[in-house]
Design a protein that fits this description.
Blueprint lengths: L9 H6 L4 E8 L2 E8 L9 H11 L4 E2 L5 H11 L7 E7 L8 E2 L27 E5 L4 E5 L6 E7 L9 E5 L8 H10 L3 E2 L5 H11 L7 E7 L5 E3 L23 E6 L2 E6 L5 E14 L5 E3 L4 E10 L3 E6 L2 E2 L7 E6 L2 E6 L8 E8 L6 E11 L1 H7 L28 H10 L1
Parallel strand pairs: 1-23, 4-8, 11-15, 16-23
Antiparallel strand pairs: 1-2, 2-8, 3-8, 4-5, 4-6, 6-7, 9-15, 10-15, 11-12, 11-13, 13-14, 15-17, 17-21, 18-19, 18-22, 20-21, 22-23
The structure holds calcium ion (2 copies).
The site of one calcium ion has 6 residues, from loops.
């Protein structure tokens, strides 16, 4: 058995631990990870261990610093479905100096200095409490003992996440070397593909490991096309200048495929029998085509949500925790692999809601989501009151006809207020 047979993504191993919760989310330019356990099992940790798990063990940033109402909302969105009695560690403490509350990113968590959301009489340092928690029951913060076992939320700038965090590599058995075509199909059998090495980081990662053995060569996911160029199996052209090719192309008969050898990339006849490396990628990098929240009655709304991964993820918009239908005329989604478009035709006040975008593929071990609050404002209603013409619309409700979730407050649109004033 070869050493690198154990070269498996850490995140993947941890996700397999029974009795543990792992949820991920994108929002406000951050990637959030929530880890928790069942009782003291899984990922419930004292505060310092939680902090260590974010930075070093899972390598997904720092314990979350809730320095804005947007981040506060993201954290609640992440925790909301995991019970109202939950207490979760967040990235603040006054361990350095009693009473001086500081986020792990260095910003102040003191009342009156930027955004805070402490509970009524908190922080009260009851029996010398030095670590910050998010209480799901109130969605407010409390200081608690640092040695309790709680779940925790990590936060990483979206710009700093890398594909390698989401990629799991598997190496073919060393004693069963096969042709490129057979290796290609072996990977497909496990919903994987021959590895695509378009980033130096992944190349280095594999190369470091492959160097431990002397003469093993691996099929990777690139071959020569009919027009002579080498193409990765995701369609991208191979940048051969990045690699030092050991062999002259003209010396090789038949169709040519790329392999990874001891000295880097090599060209071989596709019929040779070599080892191989498969990869799969859990869904990540959820992106919405726009972050705009405020719309006026009568507008057409169209928002894409895209996700990366291999196999390409299924992406689905939800509203009220149910999938948005695909077969209706006014509010619907159209999905292709890796992307779904939320469409709201001729928006009305009832379309005000929280919309969630989920991504999953066959390898998903955790919930990956982003969300968007859409608010539709009664602009057209004001224009009728003003005696002006209004476009034909199915949406001319008076506001008292509309029942909204209690947490949704419709604010008058600024533009509307200005128009009303001018007409007087
Ligand atoms: Ca304290
Ligand atoms: Ca307290």
């Amino acid at each position: 058995m070869l050493n690198f047979g154990y070269f498996i993504c850490l995140l993947f191993i941890v996700r397999e631990v029974s009795g543990s919760i792992h949820a991920t989310q994108y929002g406000n330019g951050y990637f959030y990870n929530f880890f928790a356990g069942d009782g003291k099992k899984g990922d419930n940790e004292p505060w310092w261990d939680a902090s260590y798990k974010c930075t070093t063990y899972y390598q997904v940033g720092l314990l979350v610093s809730i320095t804005s109402v947007g981040i506060q909302n993201d954290v609640w969105e992440l925790l909301d479905s995991y019970g109202s009695d939950r207490v979760t560690y967040i990235g603040m403490s006054d361990r350095e100096k009693e009473g001086l509350w500081t986020w792990v990113n260095g910003q102040s968590a003191m009342k009156g200095q930027g955004y805070t959301n402490w509970g009524g009489s908190e922080p009260n340092n009851y029996n010398n409490e030095d670590c910050g928690c998010f209480k799901s029951s109130t969605q407010q913060w409390n200081d608690e003992d640092c040695d309790h076992f709680y779940g925790f939320v990590c936060q990483q700038a979206q710009s700093r996440i890398t594909p390698e965090q989401f990629t799991t590599l598997t190496f073919g058995a060393a004693n069963s070397r096969i042709s490129y075509e057979k290796a290609h199909h072996k990977c497909i059998e496990t919903d994987s593909r021959l590895v695509v090495i378009t980033r130096d980081e992944l190349f280095q990662k594999i190369q470091n490991d492959a160097n431990r053995s002397s003469s093993i060569k691996y099929w990777i996911g690139a071959r020569q096309s009919s027009i002579g160029k080498f193409t990765w199996n995701n369609g991208e052209e191979v940048d051969l200048s990045k690699f030092s090719l050991a062999d002259k192309l003209s010396d090789i008969k038949g169709q040519k495929c790329l392999a990874l050898g001891n000295n880097g990339l090599e060209v071989h006849s596709c019929d040779e029998n070599l080892d191989y490396i498969c990869e799969y990628v859990v869904p990540w990098d959820l992106k919405k085509s726009q972050e705009r929240s405020d719309y006026m009655v009568g507008e057409d709304i169209e928002i894409d949500c895209t996700a990366t991964g291999y196999p390409l993820p299924n992406v689905t918009w939800h509203r009220d925790r149910h999938p948005v239908p695909s077969n209706t005329d006014d509010v619907f989604q159209t999905a292709v692999l890796g992307k779904s478009t939320l469409r709201i035709k001729n928006a009305n006040l009832r379309d005000t809601n929280r919309y969630r975008c989920f991504a999953e593929n066959v390898h998903t071990k955790a919930e990956t989501k982003a969300y968007l609050d859409i608010r539709v404002h009664p602009h057209e209603l004001t224009r009728i009151v003003d005696g002006k013409n209004s476009p034909a619309s199915r949406n001319l409700y008076s506001s008292d006809e509309i029942s909204l979730p209690s947490d949704q407050v419709i604010q008058p649109h600024e533009h509307t207020a200005g128009e009303t004033d001018n007409s007087k």
